[in-house]
Structures are given as C-alpha cells and as structure tokens.
Amino acid sequence: MVMSNSHREKIFYLVAYVLIGLLLVSCTRKESVSRVAVLGSPAYAVVSEIAGQGEIVNATPVGSDPHYMEFTPSVAKVLEQSNAVIALGTSADRKIARELSKPKLFLLPEGLEDPHVWLSPKRVMEWVPRIQSFLDEQFPGNKDLHAENAKTFMGVLWELDAQFERLSGYCFVTQHPAFAYVEHDYGWRVLGTLEIGEAEISPNQLIALMETLKSEKNCLLLLNPYEPSKTAEVLKEQLNVPWAYFDILEGATRNYSFIMTENIDGVLNALGQ
Predict the structure, then answer these.
(1) Reduced to 3 states, what is the DSSP secondary structure of residue 12?
(2) Can you tell me the distance from the alpha carbon of 154 to that of 131, in angstroms, rounded to the nearest whole number?
C-alpha cells in the first residue's frame, strides 16, 4: 500500500511528538535526581571534599558575596530541583534556606557576627563529621565513599593546621577583616586591616598604621587576589612591605584543600620558610 504525503506527515509528526515527550520526561527525571544544594561559596568548597560525584550542586550565584546573597530565579530553580540543602549559615543564605520544607544543615551558628570561621582549619575540622552525617542520610548507599573522602580531607586539614601553627607570633596586616578566628586559634598577630566594612580605611587610619608598621619587622601584607587595593599599593611603595595573596574563599570556585594549600604555601614562601 502506498501512503500519501499527508499520511506520511501525520506519522512523522506523531513520532516526533512521542520522541519529544520522552526527551522531556528524561530531562525532567535528570533534573529531579536527588541532589543536595549548597548555598555559600565557602560551604561548597568544603562540602565538595566529602560528597560523591553528582551528589551536590552549587546553588550560589557566581561571584556572589556570602554576606549579601540574593534569592534570584537561578537560585530558586536549583533549590526547587534539590532534595536537601546545606547552607553556610550567614544571615543572607539562612534566610533563603529557612523557608524550605526540606532537610537542611547550617554550618554556622545563627547570629554569628563574624562568619569567617572557614579560614581556620581547626574550625573546619568540626564541620566534617556533620557534613558526612548529613550526606549519609541523603545518600545512604554512599556511606563508605563519604567516609573515605572525609578521612582524606581530614588528613589535609591536619597538614594545614600544622602549617598555620608554624606562623604563631608572626605579624600580619590583612586586606579584609576576616582573620579573627585564625588569630585566636593559631596566634597570628593581626596588626591591622585595610578595610572597615566594605570601604578602605581613611587616610588618617592609614598614617597611623604606617607608623605602627615602622616598629615591626617582617610584617606580611595579606591581599585578596580578586580585589585591588589602593591602600595596599601605598604600603608596598612607601614602606616596602612584603606581601602575599590569600584567597578568603568568599567567591570560591575550587575546593577547600586546593585554595588553602595555595594560600599557606604563598605565605610561607613570602616569609622565606
């Protein structure tokens, strides 16, 4: 039997509609695969060390400041398609995650004024078992993998801890006021900072800092590699203050081990160690 062109077209469109339908169902299934959404770049840098492949998705907008994260359509979509949430726990991402009727883990305690806990390896060690346990609950078939990853990560954290301890008593000037936990946990002497809030210090404050620096030896300037500082340039030119880059992970796109190892290696090299 010979089919007419119109008959062929009807069959063609019918098959096309079926294939498109199957494709849409497939895509929907892929999007709805059980995943844990992570809010906050520092949180993602840490959680990615323990999670198995495909278990987590970064819900943090690229370049987002963890202090002022916004609930954008892209964030909403990732959260909607995920079965659970791990949030850093600053006031911004806590507000976003709090309303979700899904399992949640906040890494920081509520109401913490200075959230930069993640810069201290000692504090991150305390996060590891909590993250591991939460991931075990969401992916019980991968408990052995989580345990292996957590063990490896703890080994890196112990190495970082030892390197940070080596710098006890050393003098630092930081670009961002983010090192209070490092100062407390490791005895680093933070002589001053180049920023207060989101603004650089005033000329008078800079003059006072420069006078203080003149009486110090080998005080190292820690700079944000992604944020230029005119004040830092003045210190380098006027007093020839040595410096090193130190990524504070607020816009992290790589894992914690890589960034922090790079940070401490840069500091030790700048100090001639």
Answers:
(1) helix
(2) 12
Give residue 64's pLDDT band: very low, low, confident or very high (50, 70, 90): low
What pLDDT, in 10s, does the model give residues 179-216? Answer: 999 999 999 999 999 998 778 999 999 999 999 998 88
Q: What is the CATH number of the domain that holds 187?
A: 3.40.50.1980
Per DSSP bridges, beta strands 36-39 and 56-58 are: parallel
- Give me the mean pLDDT over the 100-128 stretch: 95
When pLDDT is averaged across residues 10-36 and rounded to a whole number, the result is 46
* Token duo for residue 98: 């709090």
Give the pTM. Answer: 0.84
Q: Per the domain annotation, does 153 fall within a domain?
A: yes
- With 0-12 / 13-18 / 19 or more C-beta atoms within 10 angstroms meaning exposed / middle / buried, residue 35 is buried
Same domain as 219, residue 134: no
Alpha helix positions (H), the chain: 5-31, 41-47, 73-80, 91-98, 121-138, 143-165, 180-186, 203-214, 230-239, 256-270
Instruction: Give 28's Cβ-side CA count (13 Å radius).
Output: 6
Asked if the model's pLDDT at residue 10 lies above 60, the reply is no
Q: Is residue 242 part of a domain?
A: yes
